[in-house]
Design goal:
The protein has about 230 residues and is of the alpha/beta class. It contains six helices and seven strands. It has a seven-stranded parallel beta sheet, with helices on both faces. α3 packs parallel to α4 and α4 (about 100-120) runs parallel beside α5 (about 150-170). The longest helix has 22 residues, at about 100-120.
């Protein structure tokens, strides 16, 4: 297979969907991972016209057995992974005293553990010149009231990314962190409060940034990039 192979987790909505579309337009063979097959089926109708080919795979990134199954399927089909985009994530907000232990466990399992599991099992298929992009957040570097669990998970993602980069550098594997600020996605509909979407960036802006990161020449790597709304904070 001469096309580059890319995996995108959380690929059926928001930032993940926009990234998947950019990769398909660029001609990648793209493995689109989604926890919900219903949304995956609707996405399939939208992407059939793009030049890249694709495979849709049901996946809960927090479950190691499911991650192993995914990577095994890719190994049989393509025998390599050129680009891994860890985007899947969940959000809960609320005061620390009102945060349920189950909520804390889920957000850490998906956002932090899920990123770890995808990297752990993908690395054996990643050769020199391959690329890992972990999608963090401005909450990877700054704490916000009522966002403690989310911030903790995204701080973990950035710390993991920075360590991973040094660990695989000698193998010629590039590792980047893309840290978007507030982005227009459906997730805001599930959060308490009034959120001014005119002060947010679009998923397409984030996706184009990710594509520019993975298209850097072999001798260059973007270690970390922040994308913030030009209008200022919410």
């Amino acid at each position: 297979m001469d096309k580059k192979i890319a995996i995108v987790t959380g690929a059926t909505r928001g930032i993940g969907k926009a990234i998947a579309v950019e990769l398909l337009k660029a001609g990648f063979f793209t493995v689109l991972c989604s926890k919900t097959l219903k949304s995956a089926a609707s996405l399939e109708n939208e992407i059939l016209s793009f030049s890249g080919s694709f495979m849709i795979f049901p996946l809960d990134v927090s479950v190691e057995q499911e991650v192993r199954k995914l990577i095994s399927s890719i190994a049989q089909k393509t025998k390599r992974i050129d680009v891994l985009i860890n985007n899947a994530g969940v959000v809960f907000t609320g005061p620390i005293e009102e945060t349920e232990t189950e909520q804390w466990d889920e957000i850490m399992a998906v956002n932090a553990k899920g990123t770890f599991l995808m990297v752990k099992h993908s690395l054996p298929l990643m050769l020199r010149g391959s690329q890992i992009v972990n999608i963090g957040s401005n909450a990877s570097k700054k704490g916000f009231p009522s966002w403690a669990a989310y911030c903790a998970s995204k701080f973990a993602v950035l710390g993991f990314t920075n360590s991973l980069r040094e660990e695989v550098r000698d193998r010629g594997i590039k590792v980047s962190a893309v840290l978007p600020g507030p982005t227009i996605t459906d997730i805001w509909n599930s959060l308490d409060g009034k959120w001014d979407r005119t002060k947010m960036i679009s998923p397409e802006v984030v996706a184009k940034t990710v594509l520019s990161v993975i298209k850097q020449p072999p001798e260059a790597n973007i270690d970390e990039i922040d994308i913030v709304p030009s209008t200022g904070s919410l």
